[in-house]
């Protein structure tokens, strides 16, 4: 979505420094999907409601569709594609797959990023209530959330803080 | 085969989950083609207007713009599912706000959108038809003045202006039967327009090769429906059209017809380059599809002992500006309107009408949620009047295996009573039930519990499958069943593994592509596990027979002496050491004798037909439909009498699926469907003011989030095997939504003593009902129970 008047923006995406062209009004989501060809972050509503574009910006969860690309200059962004080596994400992927927490999958990258962000900063494995609150801004139209929350609880127990490893077979 | 094969009934993880979790699954908007252009559309600002002129000069002059289309550039070819009333772009008039009027393709999306904003359309506003009443009144304005000239397939009898369909499904003698009833209840129920809100907005890419063959990648539920409609819309033979399926980000019926594919194909043809159009969420809300809002008038009568005697039901669905699937939605709603009960005298009639609002279409439940909200609310009202426990009243009248559906079909499998008793017992029903609005109030909050029982079908139309044995004895399964995210691919692979007694790891699922996959009508109607599953079993059995022939030749025995053993081996019955692997047999078939082993299965729904001597069936849209599935929900709610908010506390959803091929996926359908149904009950409604949509965004049209619902929503799987089903399996996609709203409404009535007959039961509606009851207002909702006290009564 570049168009006329595009300007270069320097960001770090999944650890890699990139210079990407951003058109006027382009969002971080446009930059990632169109500029960096990182299509894992999804556009569901483009208004910050659905959470399908959730990424980590300087370690904090953010809605990529709400951030202007130009404002992301110099920032470090982690998308779902950047989680392959993350132990929290690995546990989460296993648990979500086993629990039937993935149906159409369109919300899944945003949820995986949001929960990985939670686990990275958590001192102890988050309980179901914490996870439900954390996912308050991630809409899933398929599962009814139960399988996602239950999988996330188990993944947290496996991968977070002092509890990590306790539940791992 | 003795007992069930290993792959059946197992909680095997789905293969597509890994890519989806890693962000590597590719949806249509994630795909690009070399030289691809990006498209944008211009939508109508009026619900009804004549297009006087469209000025595209400024848009065309914008650098980067390659093509601008209006209806003047397109051939006059209409399409539809029953009534051929649709065009890619509004032709002559616009019929709803958001209807595409012009489209642009440009080198990038920003340019396409900038160009679309430069297109100027002169309209002459016309008086719109904005309600069912306006559509059907004497002297109504026709939404389609040219309706009589449209092609219709089949012609379903249109008697009045704005009628898309008028149907009847009746038995017995209703008028005479009222005299046999001790109690008669009557009510009018209103259900809203629900938006599908699949998380992936509609998207399509179209590309022509230099020989003129069209390829379309799109969010769809049936490559074959899209292929057939594109052929008509573009005047191409189907053999010159390929329709492929990337990952689908949810559909729920909203992608079951043809959406933007013809428009994108026209843009690609005009531009001579590939074109992608992805709708914004707002465009998707305004220009795609929605559930039919409806008005349902129902009268039901029973004996004092609870025996149901008669029902008279009349429903009118608002079909919006184009007919789409309205005739079938109406027809299916009527088939469900007797409910899963024996009621000897039924008159079930309905209409679908045109209005100047967004077209309505199939949406998870397909006319059934509208009807079942009304009828299952009314069963509870009747239980209250009779003084009979609502579960007992349902059990007393529930259909059973060997019983009769309205229209005369024999019910071939039925776990309805198990669903009712298992949900009741899991909920601890007797300990909690029957507050009758009279007690249990704490901090202004009242709890109540409600039940619903309901049915659906899973058998209709045609499907096919092929199973091919590869040279190493592994297998490629091809069906035409698009996986919308519900796990169709995984379940069909499990059925294939089961039918060949192979490990699931030896089954490869081919992508659904009209150039390669065998025909499947659609992923819809809760039919894929049952219908496509049957085709897979047929194909696998053909492969088994060929394997047995090879083994018999090798072992020089009769094919009847060959058995297929688990793990991909064929051997001589009673001689364990005499066996050969599928891989060796396949090599022999490929290189020495017989040719590669391919099995195919094909069927069109073959259940018992309706008995037109016993039933009055007018203008019915289905040639054949059936194989009934059943469910029962029990829901506990808490109603805040200060704020009016209804919270779901716990829910138990029991579903008879015949056989759960993959219990985890079945539970996912039950929980997800229930939550969509809870949204329908409590939250979701597309709203219009003077024909203008007022909440076409996810900011303003809310769906439930993780915080809005408890984790205490418990699926219960009931397995009463269906003799015709693959390993006894039936369908599950839609029923979990159907039962939610009436169970919740019945729980609200239990909590408050008030009967809300309009969905969604928003806080405002609940408070209005409470206020009306408290002040004895003009029209307080009627209490369910005459003899018992209700608040403010």
Commentary on this structure:
Chain A is of the alpha+beta class and 169 residues long. Chain A folds into 2 domains: 76 residues, Ubiquitin-like (UB roll), CATH 3.10.20.30; 79 residues, Orthogonal Bundle (DNA polymerase, domain 1). In chain A, 33% of the residues lie in helices and 15% in strands. A 5-stranded mixed β-sheet of chain A has the order 2-1-5-3-4, with helices on both faces. In chain A, strand 3 and strand 4 form a beta hairpin. In chain A, helix 2 crosses helix 3 and helix 2 runs antiparallel to helix 5. The longest helix of chain A has 14 residues. Chain A is globular, with a radius of gyration of 16 Å. Chain B is α+β, with helices and mostly antiparallel strands and 793 residues long. Chain B contains 20 helices and 30 strands. In chain B, the strands form 7 sheets. Chain B has a 7-stranded mixed β-sheet. Chain B has a 6-stranded mixed β-sheet with strand order 8-13-14-15-7-25. The longest helix of chain B has 28 residues. Chain B is globular. The C terminus of chain B is likely disordered. Classes of the chains: A alpha+beta (169), B alpha+beta (793).
Give a summary of the structure in a few sentences.
By secondary structure, chain A is of the alpha+beta class. Chain A has helices spanning 28-35, 87-99, 108-121, 128-134, 146-159, and strands at residues 7-13, 16-22, 54-57, 60-63, 76-78. Helices cover 33% and strands 15% of the residues of chain A.
| pLDDT < 50 runs, ≥5 residues of chain A | none
SS element count, helices of chain A = 5
Poorly predicted regions of chain B are 785-793
Shape of chain B: globular
Q: Give me the number of helical elements of chain B.
A: 20
Seen as an oligomer or otherwise, the chain set is heterodimer
Whole-Å distance between the termini of chain B? 65 Å
Q: What gyration radius of chain A follows from the Cα positions, in whole Å?
A: 16 Å
Structural class of chain A: alpha+beta
Largest sheet composition of chain B: 7 strands, mixed
Rg from Cα of chain B: 27 Å
- What is the first-to-last residue Cα distance of chain A? 47 Å
What proportion of the residues of chain A is helical, as a percent range? 25-40%
Broad shape of chain A? globular
User: Which percent range describes the beta-strand content of chain A?
Assistant: 5-15%
Biggest sheet of chain A, strands in spatial order?
A: 2-1-5-3-4
Please trace the helix and strand order of chain A, writing H or E for each element.
Answer: EEHEEEHHHH
Question: What is the number of strand segments of chain A?
Answer: 5
CATH superfamily of the largest domain in chain A: [2Fe-2S]-binding domain
Q: What fraction of residues of chain B sit in β-strands?
A: 25-35%
What is the total tally of β strands of chain B? Answer: 30
């Amino acid at each position: 979505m570049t168009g006329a008047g595009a300007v270069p923006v320097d960001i770090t995406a999944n650890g890699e420094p990139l210079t990407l062209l951003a058109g006027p009004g382009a969002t971080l989501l446009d930059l990632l999907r169109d500029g960096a060809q990182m299509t894992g972050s999804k556009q569901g509503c483009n208004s910050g409601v659905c959470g399908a574009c959730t990424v980590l910006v300087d370690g904090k969860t953010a809605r990529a569709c709400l951030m202007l690309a130009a404002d992301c200059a110099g920032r470090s962004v982690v998308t779902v594609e950047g989680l392959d080596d993350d132990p929290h994400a690995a546990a989460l992927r296993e648990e979500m797959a086993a629990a039937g927490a993935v149906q159409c999958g369109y919300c899944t990258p945003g949820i995986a990023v949001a929960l990985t962000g939670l686990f990275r900063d958590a001192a102890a494995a988050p309980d179901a209530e914490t996870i439900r609150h954390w996912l308050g801004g991630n809409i899933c139209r398929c599962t009814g959330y139960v399988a996602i929350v239950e999988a996330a609880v188990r993944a947290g127990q496996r991968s977070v803080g002092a509890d990590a490893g306790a539940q791992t077979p | 085969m003795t007992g069930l094969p290993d792959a059946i009934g197992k909680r095997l993880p789905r293969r597509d989950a890994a890519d989806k979790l890693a962000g590597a699954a590719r949806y249509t908007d994630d795909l690009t083609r070399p030289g691809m252009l990006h498209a944008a559309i211009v939508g109508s600002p009026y619900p009804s207007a004549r297009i006087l002129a469209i000025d595209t000069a400024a848009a065309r002059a914008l650098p980067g713009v390659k093509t601008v289309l209006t209806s003047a550039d397109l051939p006059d070819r209409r399409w539809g599912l029953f009534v051929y009333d649709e065009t890619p772009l509004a032709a002559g008039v616009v019929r709803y706000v958001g209807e595409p009027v012009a489209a642009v393709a440009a080198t990038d999306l920003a340019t396409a959108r900038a160009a679309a904003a430069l297109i100027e359309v002169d309209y002459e506003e016309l008086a719109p038809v904005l309600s069912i009443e306006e559509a059907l009144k004497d002297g109504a304005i026709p939404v389609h003045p040219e309706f009589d000239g449209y092609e219709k397939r089949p012609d379903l009898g249109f008697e009045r202006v704005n009628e898309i369909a008028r149907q009847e499904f009746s038995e017995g003698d209703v008028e005479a039967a009222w005299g046999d009833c001790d109690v008669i209840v009557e009510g009018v129920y209103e259900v809203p327009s629900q938006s599908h809100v699949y998380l992936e907005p509609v998207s399509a890419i179209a590309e022509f090769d230099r020989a003129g063959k069209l390829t379309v990648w799109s969010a769809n539920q049936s490559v074959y429906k899209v292929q057939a409609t594109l052929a008509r819309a573009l005047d191409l033979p189907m053999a010159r059209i390929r329709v492929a399926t990337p990952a689908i980000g949810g559909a729920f019926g909203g992608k079951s017809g043809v959406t933007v594919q013809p428009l994108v194909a026209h843009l690609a043809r005009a531009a001579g380059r590939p074109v992608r159009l992805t709708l914004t969420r707002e465009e998707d809300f305004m220009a795609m599809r929605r559930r039919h809002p409806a008005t349902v008038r129902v009268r039901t009568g029973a004996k004092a002992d609870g025996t149901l005697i008669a029902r008279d039901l009349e429903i009118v669905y608002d079909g919006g500006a184009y007919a789409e699937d309205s005739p079938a939605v109406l027809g299916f709603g009527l088939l469900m309107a007797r409910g899963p009960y024996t009621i000897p005298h039924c008159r079930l009639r309905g209409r679908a009408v045109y209005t100047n609002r967004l077209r309505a279409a199939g949406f998870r439940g397909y006319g059934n949620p509208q009807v079942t909200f009304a009828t299952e609310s009314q069963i509870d009202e009747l239980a209250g009047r009779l003084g009979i426990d609502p579960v007992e009243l349902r059990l007393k009248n529930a259909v059973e295996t060997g019983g009769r559906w309205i229209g005369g079909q024999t019910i071939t499998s039925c776990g309805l009573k198990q669903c009712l008793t298992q949900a009741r017992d899991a909920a601890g029903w007797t300990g909690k039930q029957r507050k009758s609005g009279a007690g249990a109030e704490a901090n202004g909050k009242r709890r109540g519990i409600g039940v619903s029982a309901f049915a659906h079908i899973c058998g209709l139309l045609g499907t096919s499958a092929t199973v091919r044995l590869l040279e190493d004895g592994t297998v490629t399964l091809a069906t035409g069943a698009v996986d919308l995210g519900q796990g169709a691919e995984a379940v069909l692979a499990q059925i294939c593994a089961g039918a060949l007694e192979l490990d699931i790891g030896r089954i490869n699922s081919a992508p659904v592509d009209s150039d390669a996959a065998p025909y499947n009508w659609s992923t819809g109607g809760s039919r894929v596990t049952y219908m496509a599953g049957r085709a897979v079993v047929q194909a696998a059995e053909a492969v088994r027979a060929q394997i047995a022939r090879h083994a018999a030749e090798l072992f020089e025995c009769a094919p009847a002496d060959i058995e297929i053993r688990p793990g991909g081996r064929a051997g001589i019955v009673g001689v364990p050491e005499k066996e050969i692997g599928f891989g060796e047999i396949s090599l022999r078939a490929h290189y020495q004798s017989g040719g590669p082993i391919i099995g195919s299965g094909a069927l069109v729904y073959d259940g018992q037909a309706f008995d037109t001597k016993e039933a009055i069936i007018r203008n019915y849209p289905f040639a054949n439909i059936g194989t009934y599935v059943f469910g029962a929900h029990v829901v506990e709610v808490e109603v805040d009498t200060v704020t009016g908010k209804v919270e779901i506390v716990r829910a138990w959803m029991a579903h008879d699926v015949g056989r759960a091929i993959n219990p985890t996926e079945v539970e996912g359908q039950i929980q997800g469907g229930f939550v969509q149904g809870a949204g329908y009950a409590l939250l979701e409604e597309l709203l219009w003011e003077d024909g203008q949509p007022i909440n076409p965004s996810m900011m303003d049209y809310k769906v439930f989030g993780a915080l809005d619902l408890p984790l205490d929503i418990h699926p219960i799987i009931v397995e009463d095997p269906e003799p015709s089903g693959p390993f006894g399996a039936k369908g599950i996609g839609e029923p979990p939504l159907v039962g939610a709203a009436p169970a919740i409404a019945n729980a609200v009535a239990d909590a408050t003593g008030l009967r809300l007959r309009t969905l969604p039961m928003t806080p405002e509606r609940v408070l209005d009902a409470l206020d009306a009851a408290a002040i004895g207002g003009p029209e307080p909702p009627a209490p369910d129970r005459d003899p018992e006290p209700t608040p403010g009564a």
